[in-house]
Amino acid sequence: MRFIKECFQRPPEEGKGPWPHRAAEPWRSMNKVGDREGVDELFQAGETSEAPLELDRDTLSGDLGPLKYKKYDLLIVGCGLSGCVLAERCSRELGMTSLIIDVRDHIGGNCYDYLDEAGIRCSKYGAHLFHTKYERVWKYVTRFSEWMANDHRVRGMVPDFEGVKKLVPIPPTQETVNTLFPDANINSEDDMLRWYEGQRVKPSSGEAKNGEEAALSRVGPLLYERIFKHYTKKQWDKYPAELDASVLMRLPCRTSTDDRYFGDAWQALPVRGYTRIFENMLLRDPKITIKLNVDFFAAREAGLLPAHGKLVFTGPIDAYFAAQGLPKLEYRSLRFEEEFIEEPEDGFYQPAFVVNHPSSDVPFTRIVEYKHVPNQPSNVKAGQVKGTRIAKEYSSAEGDPYYPVPNPENRALYERYRQLAEKESDVCFVGRLASYKYFNMDQAILNALEMFDSLKESGKLQPKRRPEDFGPGDGPK
Predict the structure, then answer these.
(1) pLDDT score of 1
(2) For residues 109-142, b (16+ Cβ closer than 10 Å) or e, as one string?
(3) How many C-beta atoms lie closer than 10 Å to residue 266's C-beta?
(4) Distance (Å, rounded) from C-alpha 390 to C-alpha 354?
(5) Helix or strand or coil: residue 26?
(6) Alpha-carbon distance 122 to 115, whole Å?
């Protein structure tokens, strides 16, 4: 195995930060988001705090006792995107009441972000990058937050032929190939296409049987070995040859100089963080009650749940049907190893917001440095916070469920759970965990909006299409 030098090269003018949040032209202009769009009602009402608002003791108590004699139209399990969109829509348009319960001590689900002790905005459950091709979703989210344009771009520490790690765009672009393989001499999209064609290895049977064959047919062995093979192993604890072809068939094959991670028309970050979106959606609505630190299953077992019309369940579908004795669905989780660096050189730890580490010699998948993002509080952007916080991400089989594991066994098992769910006439299963589908944020919002459409049209809170009809989500990044 070639020795990999623990160093990387980058253009000297790039520096360490902050990472530019807009792409170069012409790609920058493809983002339809203006410098500022949307309405933050709390901010307009005089709320100047950059941190999540302090919730009252009653909300955090976990005590359902005071609600014993109340009845709600909806009991919503989970205070993430899916449940909160339904609560907001049902209240605003139909005057319905909702009780939202969550086992965690905060609102916002996995989107929750906060300010650390130094005042840096951080994401508790990993970086979230909003992007959508759905104008309906964009118009919806701008009702609850002010947004700023952001072109998310990822860099990877990838070894070249000599084993020197170099900082290159991920997904691969012309720059990636020219940096790792200077003899490629790619100067146009036609050059890049010819390079791919010369690299690709077609499956012997004509159709890829697994992820490795799919990857080789898309990008060829040079990029596969350096960028995708070991990164996939770290993410899934399986090499591509052990995964469905569909997992790797989605590998983007960029022929241009577009180094944006996403190609959607609207790409943005909420100016005051994701938590503010949920605060504007929920906290001033008298028809929505929130109770945190409540375990749904324990409360149900103890008979503590108040009377309600429909149950909206956003948790893992296999957990809901645990008493049926079926096997558990398989998930991958994430573990975050955070570190605050007091006085990094130039104020930053690394030259980009997200740096992937696809090599097998590094146990984590990527490092996120929150200080780079443009929606940091003004004092952070002004350089008044000298330190920085990084989060190394490790994929794990243990912990909160994040990513469904796509293989035939899990798909068949989910189908059995789905059939059980269809028999629960008073329960609506919605969202990523209940659908065993990795929804992007915009897909989760659109799915909930369409379920609300069904409620208005037919009186039934049910999906308009199956989860797979939304297409693939980002999945592990």
Answers:
(1) 33
(2) bbbbbbbeebebbbbebebbbbbbebeebbebbb
(3) 23
(4) 10
(5) coil
(6) 6
Strand arrangement of the beta sheet that strand 288-292 belongs to: 288-292, 98-102, 71-77, 307-313, 427-429
Encoded tokens for 338: 């955070």
What is the average per-residue pLDDT within 436-460? 95
Which of the residue ranges 78-87, 122-131, 166-175, 462-471 would you say has the lowest mean pLDDT? 462-471
Is 429 within 8 Å of 315 (Cβ atoms)?
no
* Nearest-10 crossing angle of helices 189-199, 211-223: 120
**Token pair listed for 32:** 């339809």
> Which pLDDT score is estimated for 196?
96
Distances (CA, A) of 23 to 19, 135, 258, 262: 11, 21, 8, 11
So what's the pLDDT on residue 7?
Answer: 37
Comparing CA positions, the residue from 55, 104, 27 lying closest to residue 314 is: 104
CA dihedral 100, 401, 158, 221 (to 10 degrees): -130
pLDDT at position 13 is 39
User: For residues 195 and 202, is the Cβ–Cβ distance under 8 A?
Assistant: no
Q: Quote the CA–CA distance of 135 and 352 in Å, as a whole number.
A: 29
DSSP string for residues in 382-435 = TT----EEEEEEEEESSSS--EE--SHHHHHHHHHHHHHHHT-TTEEE-SHHHH
| Under 8 Å between Cβ of 388 and 340 | yes
- What digits encode the pLDDT tens for the residues 252-271? 789 999 999 999 999 999 99
Structure tokens at 401: 């469920």
Closest CA to 176 of 286, 98, 254, 262: 254
Contacts 24+ apart (CB under 8 A), 191-199: 192/254, 192/255, 192/256, 193/255, 196/220, 196/253, 196/255, 199/223
Residues contacting residue 322 through CB under 8 Å, at least 6 positions apart = none
Closest CA to 102 of 122, 68, 127, 75: 75
pLDDT tens digits, 17-35: 799 999 999 999 999 999 8
Bridge partners for 354 per DSSP: 368
Q: Among residues 273, 267, 261, 262, which one has the least CA distance to residue 375? A: 273
User: Whole-model pTM?
Assistant: 0.93
pLDDT tops 70 at residue 418: yes
